[in-house]
Amino acid sequence: MAESNRARMCLQWRMHKLIWNLSGGRLGRKAAGMPVLELSTTGHKSGLQRQILITYVEHRGAPAIIGTNAGRNTDPAWVHNLRANPDARARWDGIWHDVVAAELSGADYEEVWSDAVAVNPGYAPYRESLTRPIPIFRLGPVDS
Predict the structure, then answer these.
(1) How far apart are CA 1 and CA 7, in angstroms?
(2) Spatial contact of 98 and 92, defined as CB atoms under 8 Å apart
(3) CB environment 44-61: b (16+ within 10 A), e (fewer)
(4) What is the DSSP letter of 133?
(5) Mean pLDDT over residues 62-85, rounded?
(6) Coil, strand, or helix at residue 141?
(7) Nearest to 29 by CA among 74, 92, 116
(8) Is residue 112 pLDDT above 80, yes or no?
(9) In whole angstroms, how large is the CA radius of gyration of the chain?
(10) CATH class as words, domain 3-141
(11) pLDDT reported for residue 70
């Protein structure tokens, strides 16, 4: 993906986040045909809370998020954060949930990847062009 496309995508996400925040997560629930959630992780180096908006696909009743990093050949920061501390918070449909992230592999990974590409074919070129594996995490509920 060309740098100009990345810059445009970053601007779109900034505008999306502004609308999301002003509406308390009630507006901007979809992007590129996929639902959106706000993910709050603990920074793996800083220990500070970090928030991002990210699209997801549903997997066994929970959101699954995909670390394409807009086609960059490095994992997004949230991946490092979840690997260091899988306890997180996520807001979708205007409601905050305490979640535990589990990195997917095998059949679960392939199922989520296939579902994501079916909804947004723009994911397919990432897998073909990147030299790193694209991480996928399921955000499951915290056990009581």
Answers:
(1) 10
(2) no
(3) beeeeeeebbbbbbebee
(4) -
(5) 95
(6) strand
(7) 92
(8) yes
(9) 15
(10) mainly beta
(11) 84
